[in-house]
Each structure stands twice: as C-alpha cells, then as structure tokens.
C-alpha cells in the first residue's frame, strides 16, 4: 500500500531544519564536503542523527502534524562519494543504511514519510557543469534505484539549480515508480542560479515529464529572496506544496564565506511563511534549511496554522 502524500492527506506536514548547520554549529561535527552520510559510519555520528531526527518527530507529535524526514544522503552520489572515498558499492550500502535509520522512527503517530534525499551533482549554490535531462537521468538513477528498492515513501531532490537536472531526476523516479519531489533553490533575485525564472523552471520540468512530479518545493533561500516572484494566481503556484527556507537573509555567496551561523529570527520567519501561505494555495509542507532548527520549524508551523 502506497503512502498518503501531503498533497492527498489534508493536514500540515513538517520537515526538519538545517541538518548540516545544526550538526556543525550546535553538535560540533566536522562535515567534509558538507556531507552528513559519513556519520553513519561512526557510532557517535549515528547517535547524533538519531537524536536529531527524534527532536522533529517529537515536534510533529506535539503539533499533531504529519512528518517528512529526508535520509542523510544529499551528497551520497557518485561525484561527491568519490571525493569522500566511497565507491559504488559503498554508496549503495550507505544509502540503504540511511533509510534503515529512519525506519527506526516509524510509528503510527505522527505519520512519518521516509524521503530518499537526492542532491545536485554540483555544489547546490552554483550551477557548474550542466547535464542534459538524459545525462541527469543516468547519473541519478543508481541512487534512486536503491531508494525504490528500499520502498521509501518518496524521493526528494533538494537544492537543484537548473531545470534539466530536475527533469532527469523525475524521469529516473518514474522509471522506478516512486513519487518524486523537486525542490529548487533561488538567488536573492528569486531566480534559479542558472538565471531561469522559478515559474519557468517548474513549467519546463512539468512539460518535459507530463507533470509527473508529485509536487515542487523551494529550499535554501530566505523568503525575502523569492516572495516577490510568486505571482498571485499564476497556475504554477499550485505546484509549490513545500517550503524549506533559510534562517538568514544572506546570499548563497555570503553564506559560503561565513564562519559563523546566522540563525535569523524564528518568529519573523514564521510570519513570512504565514504571508506566503496566502499566495501558495496548496502549501502543506513546511520546514527549514541552513541555519534553522526546531525553534524555526515550530514557529513556522504555528504561524501557518494560526
């Protein structure tokens, strides 16, 4: 029996916040290449991840909300794996163990959706070398195949910088018959790092895949970066179901150069989500990205349900 996705459930779903920034700045872990999956090879790291996930499960229970949690595999693809010393077999193993870790949290309440997390081939802040949709499908297929074999509830591709990579990911998920969510990041002007308008990117992916993505999200940007491009009444706004904003108003370039965590203002972030709900008619999934933690997600969830 397939899981009921946020688009079908009718209740609010929350996600976690900024996993990497929390582990680095609050928990004191070093994350080479900004990758969390190597923590699964360390007992202390694995326990920290359990504690991290459990805090959001507790929050969802207190809110009476659904919960979407991503595996720690945003960097667990071939290029990043090679940089960290993981070959194809090791990557398959760590992707499977990442799903298993989330299964430990599975319970009846709140409903927990396990999301196999896919990250961009490149940095996530800049486009870098691009792929055609066909190349992207081949590149991301091994990781998505593992997630499908592990019976995840959905695959979420986060921090994507251009539409062709997103199209390839959707096609790979279609081949393996697993629901897929596409999340773009944007710069301070509300455009993707590729320069394309957000709405155009969503429409391009939908046209190339016959609308196969379960829904779209925006992540790793502050609401002030993209609120102005959400054109009231535009058809593509109905495809945005999730938001995972940064705590900071800084640009990607500024965040990349910063040595200190900018955790922003949780209440202000909540208020901005609340205003965005008025122009995003299907908003059902809220969480955070860089610099956010349980305080921010709680403030956001309370604000959008107020």
Structural topology:
Layout: H1 6-9, E1 13-14, H2 19-26, H3 43-63, E2 66-70, H4 78-83, H5 88-103, E3 112-118, H6 133-149, E4 154-160, H7 163-175, E5 180-184, H8 198-209, E6 215-219, H9 223-226, E7 240-245, H10 252-257, H11 266-277, E8 285-288, H12 294-305
Parallel strand pairs: 1-2, 1-8, 2-3, 3-4, 4-5, 5-6, 6-7, 7-8
What can you tell me about this protein's structure?
With 306 residues, the protein is of the alpha/beta class. The chain has a single domain, classed as Homocysteine-binding-like domain (TIM Barrel, Alpha-Beta Barrel). Helices cover 43% and strands 13% of the residues. It has helices spanning 6-9, 19-26, 43-63, 78-83, 88-103, 133-149, 163-175, 198-209, 223-226, 252-257, 266-277, 294-305, and strands spanning 13-14, 66-70, 112-118, 154-160, 180-184, 215-219, 240-245, 285-288. It has an 8-stranded parallel beta barrel, surrounded by 5 helices. Helix 8 links the parallel strand 5 and strand 6 (215-219). Helix 3 packs parallel to helix 12, helix 5 crosses helix 6 and helix 11 runs parallel beside helix 12. It starts with 5 loop residues before the first helix and ends with a helix.
């Amino acid at each position: 029996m397939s899981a009921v996705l946020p688009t079908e459930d009718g209740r609010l779903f929350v996600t976690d916040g900024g996993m990497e920034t929390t582990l680095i700045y609050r928990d004191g872990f070093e994350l080479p290449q900004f990758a969390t999956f190597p923590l699964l090879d360390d007992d202390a790291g694995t326990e920290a991840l359990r504690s991290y996930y459990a805090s959001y499960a507790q929050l969802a229970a207190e809110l009476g909300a659904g919960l979407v949690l991503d595996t720690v595999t945003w960097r667990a693809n071939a290029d990043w794996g090679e940089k960290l010393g993981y070959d194809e077999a090791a990557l398959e193993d760590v992707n499977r163990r990442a799903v298993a870790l989330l299964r430990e949290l599975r319970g009846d309440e709140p409903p927990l959706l396990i999301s196999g997390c896919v990250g961009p081939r490149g940095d996530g802040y800049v486009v870098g070398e691009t792929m055609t949709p066909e190349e992207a499908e081949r590149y991301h297929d091994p990781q998505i195949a593992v997630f499908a074999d592990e019976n995840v509830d959905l695959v979420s591709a986060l921090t994507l910088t251009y539409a062709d990579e997103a199209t390839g990911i959707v096609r790979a998920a279609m081949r393996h018959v697993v629901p897929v969510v596409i999340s773009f990041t944007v710069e301070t002007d509300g455009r993707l790092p590729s320069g394309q308008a957000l709405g155009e990117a969503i429409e391009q992916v939908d046209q190339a895949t016959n609308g196969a993505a379960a829904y779209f999200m925006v992540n790793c940007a502050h609401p002030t970066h993209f609120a102005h491009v959400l054109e009231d009444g535009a058809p593509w706004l109905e495809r945005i179901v999730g938001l995972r904003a940064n705590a900071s108003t800084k640009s990607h370039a500024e965040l990349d150069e910063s040595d200190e965590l900018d955790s922003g203002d949780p209440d202000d972030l909540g208020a901005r989500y609340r205003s965005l709900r008025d122009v995003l008619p299907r908003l059902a999934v809220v969480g955070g990205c860089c610099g956010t933690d349980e305080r921010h997600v709680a403030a956001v969830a309370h604000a959008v349900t107020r």
